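Subject line: Sequence and fold of a protein, written as structure tokens
Body of memo: The sequence and its backbone structure tokens, given next.
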Amino acid sequence: MLRPGGDVKLRNKILLGFALVVVGVIGAFAITISYSGACPEPGVAPEGSETMIAVRARCYGGPEILTVEQVEKPSPGEGEILVRVVAGGVNPLDYHFMRGTPYILRMMAGIGTPDDTQVGVDFAGIIEAVGPGVTRFEPGDAVFGGGPGAFAEYLVIGQDKAVTRKPGNVSFAQAAGVGIAGITALQALRDKGQLEEGQNVLINGASGGVGTFAVQIAKTMGADVTGVSSARNTELVTSLGADHVIDYKQENYVDREERYDLLVDMVGNFSPSRNVDVLKPGGRIVVVGGPKGNWVAPFLRPLQAMWTSNFVDEEIITLFAKMDRKDIGTLAALMQDGNVRPIIDRHYALANIGDAITHSESKRARGKLIIDVAAATDSAVIDLANRYAAAWSGQDPAALASFYSEGGRLQVNDGDPAVGRPAIEAKASSFMTAFPDMRVELEHLEQVGDTVLFHWHWTGTNTGPGGNGNAVDLYGYEAWALDQNGLIAQSLGSYDIGTYERQMAD
């Protein structure tokens, strides 16, 4: 027989026991999903099989766990295409899956070790073969999009997935930078933000991968665009079409009197309740991404948004973008018409994938980071090309000439060659003087035998002495022969002179 109050004590014991079970289950679940298994040895391709070079993540961890391996080359199945990858684009998604964080991702990616060891999503390349039933593409088509295994020489993707033909006026490197970032920007503005012509939009994080697309897409939709960035990126954001730029180091956009129809927030430096204050009545906030963290932190911003939305009239929406065939086609059309241009920060060789991921995690990239898959694998050559492009953009003809050997030779199309550093400096100076704002970007770098092909994108305005004020926007390449010291012994440059003359015509 129970003593007085015994039923209460029994109930408390049951509740305590239940609580301990719940805590135990939660603890076991936490231990399970956070467990990181040891890295297995790199796989070995079956003997006699056709192989390719690919990046693999066989366990969870930092960039050091990524390996560049010789693996079996895939073959296209029913409704699939085999793409020879020219370039891949780096995204935050890559390091999230590399680290397996937040840990809840491992419920999908694999407990302990990844189920799918492929790395990279965004790609651009050339179709090498098609499987049975493929009607949308043919071998030789240049394509881009998003699918598993972009950081490899080849990948297989279904013809009905997020893949489409690459516009002819867009380089492979540019196309590789579109995928996730471009689709995220498009869906944030059009689908979740429901942006309309004549409205004004604030883009917080305008110089990043998603932000650079968002600024341009918003302008094509007829919006008045305000971008938030640092002062060093003001010129970039303005060049993309932003009507106004706020330097976040000088002022907080939440303290301004201006009110907006839409806020697209990639940064999350202010709470949803503060962000609501910058909206017009009936305005919208689209939250993109979240903070770093292994457990709760990545979900705090979406949870805050959901909670705050219950107490305000304005809408607060969290976006989880989906790769979509129609949307990748929309982005292709925008690029074809010249309304959107992907912004590239840096290029990396496939062998330097760890450095690219590290830079991506720093969140300091201006635009996109590109992996030159079908490229020179020598990191010294990659570095040379990046610095060479920077010398052209930096209006420094002497620095440009220093990349050449003493008796180096520079020839553009069928023009007279410049031989020796003084002559090369003079030739470079003539271009830089004629186009004071000229910018040269490395688009793609590949090695064919002993020749390095430096593919470039040149923009500038002819405002130098006697200039007509016309803008040029050209793609071309230089074929380099390097000497034993890694300097350029000969450069044979080529670009479409007809396109140049049309752009320069009054």
